[in-house]
What does this fold into?
Amino acid sequence: MPHATPLIATLVGGIVLAFILGAAAHRLRLPPLIGYLLAGVVIGPFTPGYVADQHLADQLAELGVILLMFGVGLHFSVRDLMAVRKVAVPGAIVQISVAVVLGMSLAALLGWSVMGGFVFGLALSVASTVVLLRAMQERRLLDTERGKIAVGWLIVEDLVMVFALVLLPAVAAGDGTMGGIGTALASTLAKVGAFIAFMLIVGRRVIPWLLHSIAHSGSRELFRLAVLAIALGVAFGAAFLFGVSFALGAFFAGMILSESQLSQRAAEETLPLRDAFAVLFFVSVGMLFNPHVVVAKPLALIATVAIIVVGKSVAAYLIVRLFRRPHRTALTIAASLAQIGEFSFILATLGTSLELIPGEARDLILAGAIFSILFNPLLFSLIARSEAKADKAEGKPAPVPVPAPKGHVVLIGYGRVGSLIGEKLIGAGERLTVIEAEDDFSGFPEAGEKVTVIAGNAAARSVLERANLGEARLLFVAIPQSFEAGQIVEQARAINPGLKIVARAHSDEEETHLMSCGANLTIMGEREIARRMIEQALPAN
It folds into this structure.
């Protein structure tokens, strides 16, 4: 029996290279997505050395698309969208329209068809969910107004792209005449309508019931398998029975499942597999990329990147300002949307397979994604500097608080856990310094003689130094992100070697990680729950 088959070689080559280059990208403080794409370039047909099986890679990528779309549906929130609908819905639609017009203009200059330009512009219009959420999380903006608007905006973009994925095959199936295209669209919409009706009438009852039944069995393995069976089964059934795309089926499966009380657990249980196949999807996309386009079409590439980074950003900024939102909010949303990712790759791949866009367009989209993702952190840095200069020009006080008195307590994170800690400390009369990433966060305690509030990312040493850690006696790290918490602990330990640091953990691995970074004590929620429950059976004497 051979020790290397095309399937195994493609899986191993893709995953190992994606890990190496993803880790390198993370080390350089870049999104690992860049590393995954470059892994595909390395094992693709346009670079020397080993070439993976493109046909198998495409099939693995299809699984990645199904699980990606399932995850999008699972995290789809009508409530979040409704909260910011007045800005996000019209804003996203107008911004998509601007990007499409710009993309079609560039396509016309390059001699492509009108439909090719439309698909090209559509691919440039949608931001990457992975990149946007990471940018928001790193700056702790998800719970702020600007973060909610950006996420709502992204939801609208995703919905438009799902609709586009359904209609593009119908357009390609038409005979080129308006009548033929109209007939194909009507047929597709009828099938989509039948599928949606089936999911709302049958799926909405059966899927939650099935999941709850398996959950009551107590088998974690069966529960995980049930979630995957629902995602893959509904996607395949949608394509086989209703003639709609895998993507739409998976999206609706996730959306129906999101209404269940077990949706959070379902998301957690399937995350490792979804991540693995998402990586393979990005690798397969990278395999399609011909790096020669950078040399062969430099002006077209510059124009593509300009549409993504400048055109979309300016449009988003102006739209947000028209809705009378603050300058800072408009800048943050503009920067968040100045990149493209997953849906762009799906559209590029689909457009190429349907012969709606040339291979050159796909290469420009992929190159534009790589460069825009690389530029995105720089945009946020420039925004931070411009805000600091604006505050200084307006005569606002510098963001350095009154130095906290010696022996104070520093609390990082004022969310669900941090706010409870802060309230108790303030009630006890402790001298407290709170660090949160956003100065308009509604949950901040009121600053006073004994309470100091600092807005900033605590992972930055400069922010920690503003908290006067050298004079503090205790540091609470109450944020849930263990890797960011580890960076904070390391920085704090370097500033004050004698500081007592208490951190929050969710698993034994996180506890080990935080202790190795320098925490004196880690508190794990599950362990504390177990201790309190045991106390009821074995009360202290």
